[in-house]
Design goal:
This protein starts with 13 loop residues before the first strand and ends with a helix. The protein is globular, with a radius of gyration of 21 Å. The strands form 4 sheets. A 7-stranded parallel sheet has the order 3-2-1-4-5-6-11, sandwiched between helices. A 4-stranded mixed sheet has the order 8-15-14-13. Residues about 1-5 have low confidence and may be disordered. It has a domain at about 15-205 and about 240-265 and about 320-340: 3-Layer(aba) Sandwich (Rossmann fold). Helix content is about 35%, strand content about 15%. By secondary structure, it is of the alpha/beta class. Helix 9 (about 270-280) crosses helix 11. Bound molecules: NADPH dihydro-nicotinamide-adenine-dinucleotide phosphate (NDP) and guanosine-5'-diphosphate-rhamnose (GDR). InterPro entries: GDP_Man_deHydtase, NAD(P)-bd_dom, NAD(P)-bd_dom_sf.
Length: about 350
């Protein structure tokens, strides 16, 4: 079983996180610093600051356990030479590959770039480990995804469910998934896939559906906005909390042998239910009228339209329902989610109301 006690020895553990500025990267960095890791992250050059999710980590040193350090390196998943240089310099014991063009809808517009970063980028990183001669020392985590299941052939989905990707994003991640397994088998590397179902938080990117809903409903409650425009209200997702999910990533790398795991809550809810739950938080009930692109959500007891369907948010091919079975993770890792659907919505709504009160322009 796993060395999961609170006192486990993490001295000498060096983590390298790609995608550290993203939702998961920021929670994972926090988690590892609390354990005393030396944490290194790769950030991209951008024309304005892109480190808002991790600023507290180099300012609030008190969150770190003694011995923990935090360092950022400029790099990009499209640039092999920088990946080799960073790995040679850092000599990590664990690598978490979280960097990705992670938006499914946008992957239809940026299809080639998404393949470069999410697919070939994974290969570049694995090859960089080998170039540095560290393939027997490094444990490698790949951020795989429930989007691989795509057009669903069975529910709930397990590690054995066949894949049917439905977007350039999912196709790129499919390459990432298999190249990890291939390098594991070909070079005896410790490399594993976490097949993570959707996970959200107050740090979720603003153009993913959950955060878009909680931000807009928060603005509606403060009279800063009137209407929420969405695409497909009927798609169903297995939504968990990002903080729980980064812990599972770490647990996978503490095993003696690499294995792939589904990480999910085992509950599925529609976008429509997420909307209803968010409005409930601000004391409003939504009644649905009409159908298809003409469907609207009306505030109960009034004639005020609060939700509209806008076809511009539809996808050329949709993933209708995701529902994960994480029993292997429970059995082997001892992992189970701590935050349920209602608590997730409440956490995100409370945070967005605070944010919009402080800064209505956010
Ligand atoms: P985010 O979109 O919040 O973060 C993505 C990160 O990747 C950011 O740090 C981003 O940098 C970085 N990045 C993007 N392109 C490049 C590049 N070319 N080179 C280097 N870094 C790059 O995603 P999440 O945190 O939500 O997800 C983390 C990973 O897990 C992703 O790989 C995602 O596909 C996968 N995943 C996510 C799930 C979820 O529900 N959240 C579920 C299953 C898998 P910048 O900040 O500069 O944009
Ligand atoms: P997803 O997340 O595609 O599941 O990918 P997203 O929140 O973008 O969409 C979930 C569902 O909501 C529907 N939807 C809308 N989506 C967005 N973004 N905006 C809208 O206005 C809207 N209206 C309805 C979508 O059609 C979809 O069915 C996320 C990402 O984090 C991936 O990186 C990750 O791999 C998967 O989760 C698991």
């Amino acid at each position: 079983m796993l060395p999961l006690s609170a006192n486990e020895n993490t001295s000498g553990k060096i983590a390298l996180i790609t995608g550290i500025t993203g939702q998961d990267g920021s929670y994972l960095a926090e988690f590892l610093l609390k354990k005393g890791y030396q944490v290194h992250g790769i950030i991209r050059r951008s024309s304005s600051f892109n480190t808002h999710r991790i600023e507290h980590l180099y300012q609030n040193k008190f969150t770190h356990q003694e011995g923990a350090t935090f360092k950022l390196h400029y790099g990009d998943m499209t640039d092999s030479s920088c990946l080799v240089k960073i790995i040679a310099q850092v000599r990590p014991t664990e690598i978490y590959n979280l960097a990705a063009q992670s938006h499914v809808k946008i992957s239809f517009d940026l299809s080639e770039y998404t393949a470069e970063v999410d697919g070939v980028g994974t290969l570049r990183l694995l090859d960089a480990i080998r170039t540095c001669g560290l393939e027997k020392q490094v444990k490698f985590y790949q951020a795989s995804t429930s989007e691989l299941y795509g057009k669903v052939v069975e529910t709930p989905q397990t590690e054995k469910t066949p894949f049917y990707p439905r977007s350039p994003y999912a196709c790129a991640k499919m390459y990432g998934f298999w190249i990890v397994i291939n390098y594991r088998e070909a070079y005896d590397m410790f490399a594993c896939n976490g097949i993570l179902f959707n996970h959200e938080s107050p740090r979720r990117g603003e153009n993913f559906v959950t955060r878009k809903i909680t931000r807009t409903v928060a603005k509606i409650s403060l009279k800063q906005q009137e209407v929420l425009e969405l695409g497909n209200l009927d798609s169903k997702r297995d939504w968990g909390h990002a903080r729980d999910y980064v812990e599972a990533m770490w647990m996978m790398l503490q095993l003696e042998k690499p294995e792939d795991f589904v990480i999910a809550t085992g509950e599925t809810h529609s976008v429509r239910e997420f909307v209803e739950e968010s409005f409930k938080f601000i004391g409003k009930e939504i009644e649905w009228r009409g159908s298809g692109v003409d469907e609207v959500g009306v505030e109960k007891g009034t004639e005020i339209i609060r939700v509209k369907v806008n076809p511009k948010y539809f996808r050329p091919t949709e993933v209708d329902i995701l529902l994960g079975d994480a029993s292997k993770a429970k059995r082997v890792l001892g992992w189970s989610p701590k935050v349920n659907f209602d608590e997730l919505v409440k956490d995100m709504m409370a945070a967005d109301i605070e944010l919009m009160k402080k800064n209505p322009m956010a």
